[in-house]
Specification:
The complex is a heterodimer of chains A (292) and B (395). By secondary structure, chain A is an alpha/beta fold. Chain A contains 9 helices and 14 strands. In chain A, strand 6, helix 4 and strand 7 form a beta-alpha-beta unit. In chain A, helix 5 packs across helix 9 and helix 6 packs parallel to helix 7. The two termini of chain A are 22 Å apart. By secondary structure, chain B is α+β, with helices and mostly antiparallel strands. Helices cover 37% and strands 25% of the residues of chain B. Chain B contains 13 helices and 19 strands. Classes of the chains: A alpha/beta (292), B alpha+beta (395). Chains A and B meet through helix 4 and helix 5 of A and helix 4, helix 9 and helix 13 of B.
Chain lengths: 292, 395
Amino acid sequence: MSILVNKNTRVICQGITGKVGEFHTKGCKEYGTQMVGGVTPGKRGETVQGLPVFDTVIEAVEQTGADATMIFVPPAFTADAILEALDAGIKTIVAVTEGVPVVDMIHVYEKIRASDSVLIGPNCPGVITPGECKIGIMPGYIHQRGKCGIMSRSGTLTYEAVWQTSNLGLGQTTCVGLGGDPIVGTSFIDLLRRFQDDPETEAIMMIGEIGGSAEEEAARFVKQYVTKPVAAFIAGRTAPPGKRMGHAGAIISGGKGTAAEKVAALMDAGIEVADSPADMGVAMQRAIANKR
Amino acid sequence: MKIHEFQAKQLLRKAGVAVLDGEVAETPAAAAAAFQKLGGSLAVVKAQIHAGGRGKGTVKEHPQQRGVELVRSAVQAEAVAKNLLGNKLVTIQTGPEGQTVRRVFVEAGCQIARELYLGCVLDRAVARPVLMVSSEGGVEIEKVAAETPEKIFKEHFDAHVGLLPFQVRKLCQKLALTGNSVRSAEKFMRTLCRVFVSHDCSMLEINPLVVTQAGDLVALDAKMTFDDNALFRHPDLQELRDLSEEEPAEVRAGEAGLSYVKLEGNIGCLVNGAGLAMSTMDIIKYHGGQPANFLDVGGGANAKQVTEAFRILLSDPNVKGVLVNIFGGIMRCTTIAEALVEAYKTVGFSVPLVVRLEGTEVEQGRKILKESGVNIIAADGLTDAAKKIVAAVGI
């Protein structure tokens, strides 16, 4: 088992005719993902990477039976693309696009939370179940099927964690990049719940960063409900307050959202925290050993 | 993006939020003229810089001069403006070097009965905007939040419907506002919340928000910052950007599509992805070094951007070595390798360069670097990279 996506997931790409959309459609297809089509308004009838292009998501769903989408449209149109996918009944929506206005996401978030669809992102690398389905921009070869569920607010730092767990032979069940924006569709808690319920996932790794309070909320949830071993890392221990570190969400403001606060909350919940980003995999091993 | 107080007040006035009359002045003479134009017996001269704490801040060249000063004549207004303009104001937010004052805002006075606090931000935990008010105006809200959180009152509101009248009444009750002030508050608060959403603000703060002796609410200060990602739909707001208030290297990076933040150390970092860039800073420090910057070249950087990134890094005289850390996903290692080689040749490197590559097309990328003949210290993994650069700069 795995969470969110598997070998039966049928995926379309919104923005497939763009350079980036096409490049990653090809990458996902080569990885073994069941890519079944794409959507670009006005480009109906074209084919990209051997896949049919449609004008609307609803048509793509009707013609291909797609139940997941990967969104690469420009930031000004991303909210609309997400809502179109939702309206068409897509169950797993992955928005890779970076730079979506926060106000747009307030509305999208309300709609998504009131539905039974899941939104991953925006501003995220995507989701992958190794050996079955990759939706997003992560390099496939670093993954190895195994026992860790990995979730992260950052893209390339997720690759780092994946690489370390692969090299240690732990492997992964599913890896999810939540996205680096202030408002994203899925929280650590949503995924903790899914990983806890997934029989194949034996351990969970959480990679957070400064800003907001998502890690503290997750720590409280772990303390109460999660019985599987959990390891964590927080990026930005050396970041100065008031400076936005690339991600719109990564800013220490009003003395809140510091790494120190987050690490304290995680440790209080019995989570094994890596001091160095090079030790995320080792921290996972320690967490597993401690639970035995 | 940040803007000045006087610009924020112009926007608020246009939207129907009560602010006092005021004039911007770039010379002492203009400040005197502004005092006369306002026509009152007193006014306040306020330094306009993109940093808070101005009232308690002092001018480096004139240590007696504060950043905000009450004046009672045109002559006095001129004298205060003379102390401020062209000089550096040091506040708790500017750092010890201070920030040059290029403009002052001369504002009419008013009869203050009470000082309150009002702020509007996004509450990330619930993904909704929230209006916060407090009876403790004029002081640092962080301090109130830490010491007496029971004095801060919050109302979340729907971004599309806005703040509702009953929510204003709830807040008025907490703030002990009555009669005329409740009517004034309804207009003030509801308009402000509307501005927050319509202008794509990331923060809108009125501190202090004053209640005049007549019972009206007036914004005495105004701090407004905007969501950079939404500026594309606000050409009018883009024009308010004051580049002279920003770190030149950060402006240059922004123009090249790079995310750069200058820090105090001597190890320049070039990384793809914000999380990895932050972690690279962290691991340098973990191994005893000091990062000179945060630099995220993003997902789709090309050779030109990487070259510009190197130029920016090397223009910082503190940089004694550079660490490149790339885990390619959307970014291909071949792209970065080619760019590295080209940049190395065109920019002219005189400091050690440590490169760690992993991810999409990594083998080809490493091959390009190896065959280029460029003097690069190759690193295998994060810890190795951090140790090598720290050793190379010789701490």
